[in-house]
Amino acid sequence: MNEEERWIMHGLDWDDPDCIRTVEGLEAYIEEVGFLPFFRCEIPGFSAEEHTAADGWWTEDPERDPWEWRKILASRGKVAYGKFFDRKAGFISKKWFPAFANYRRDGYDFDARWDDELASARSKKIMDLFGEGHEDRELFSFEMKQLAGYGKNGEKNFDGETTSLQMQTYLCIRDFRKRKNKNGNEYGWGIAVYSTPEHLWGYEHVTSLYSEDPKESALRIFRRVRELYPEAEDQALVRVLGLKNVIEHTEKKVIPYPENLVKALRIDGLTADAMTADQIAGLEVAVGQLRDKQQKTIVMKYRDHMKNEEIGRIMNRAAGTVGSYHSKAIGKLKWPRIAAWYLDGYDVSIRAYLKKKGIPYPVQIIREDGQTVSGMDHCLRLGISLKHYDALMTAGIFTVFDLIVAAQDPAWYKSIRGIGPKTAAEIEKKLDVLYIDQLGEEDEKK
Q1: Nearest CA-CA partner of 169 in 224, 113, 115, 125
Q2: pTM summary value
Q3: Is residue 75 part of a domain?
Q4: pLDDT by residue (tens digit) across 22-45?
Q5: How distant, in Å, are the alpha carbons of 7, 146, 352, 443 from that of 356?
Q6: What is the tens place of the pLDDT at every residue in 249-266?
Q7: I need a surface site. Which of 17, 52, 222, 318 has the fewest CB within 10 A?
Q8: Are residues 300 and 385 in the same domain?
Q9: Residues 348 and 406 in one domain
Q10: Are the CB atoms for 22 and 32 separated by under 8 Å?
Q11: Cβ neighbours for 34, distance < 8 A, ≥ 6 positions apart
Q12: Distance, CA of 339 to CA of 294 (rounded, Å)
């Protein structure tokens, strides 16, 4: 991850007993789990990066550097290396490759895919280089580009086409080799050398699951990662593994709020089960600082467990637009001044905030848990913005009880500068959902 112009690797300490310290250890781990992205992804722990020493990278030391290990593993051919995971690099073991090939290819050899008009002409120009009579060919990436007619006056998007062919499992990176000058001496950096997986392990092995329904192969892959990472979100699994139409065939695991939101924030060291009630209370305040459309997206996605398509229908927006709202909301929740509410805690933050305003508010608020709003809570706990809370305080409305009393008058907001009818309706709705309705549930339990 690039943080403040520095490339930060999220691995382990070299002395950590769980740290993989050798290329043989990484190879054995890949064969044990079956397949593994190279860099950290949406599934915590599911990468070579997170299992190797953080300070070993980019040292060019083949004894310690995972960046060097990928070259060694690609050349050995015991595991396949390529852009197999969400168009990013990773490894697949020999045992698991047939499942990936059967699903990703949908049972098609490339020639058959071309005959059925399912492949692009650009891809065919690349795959023809490995066609009949050239099945065991190994080519530098620059050789492929030239021979397939890509370049300044030829075809475009060579990198995109080769990545797609790797995702479809028709190509893999066989090695990293240096160029040679006319005297046969190597020079420069190691360059990717491509081949087909059939060149590594033979046609019969790679296609050994063609008789199986591709969806069954996909389910096998999905279940394997679900077994290893039971807390991972299904959508993250689908994206990273390059699967489609799989979740509907599996039992959906619903992660409760706010655990699901905390996971989505992906802040190192922050987990819902380790958060105090005060931090969880602060999370509600933080969500209240988002723009209206972003806040609604977060609430519907995490509290109501709705998909982007469902949210889009309610908001009259495309699913992609909802996805954009979501990305911006998660990013904003990480802003230091907003994140402080759930990192430092609600009580600490509200007291500091009021102190800056010169408003004494020493009331100790007792909460049974982080998701329960008390009548003595500040209105801010209902998930309203600081701007609107300032307006309420100016009118003498501090607590939830204060708001309930004020809202008895249908026109309560008209005397408050900065609160209009639309905002007032949103505040009343939050009051009902987070406090009034909860009181009804408590009565039912009694």
Answers
A1: 113
A2: 0.58
A3: no
A4: 999 999 999 999 999 999 998 888
A5: 37, 66, 6, 39
A6: 555 567 888 899 998 898
A7: 17
A8: no
A9: no
A10: no
A11: 92, 93, 95, 96, 224
A12: 16
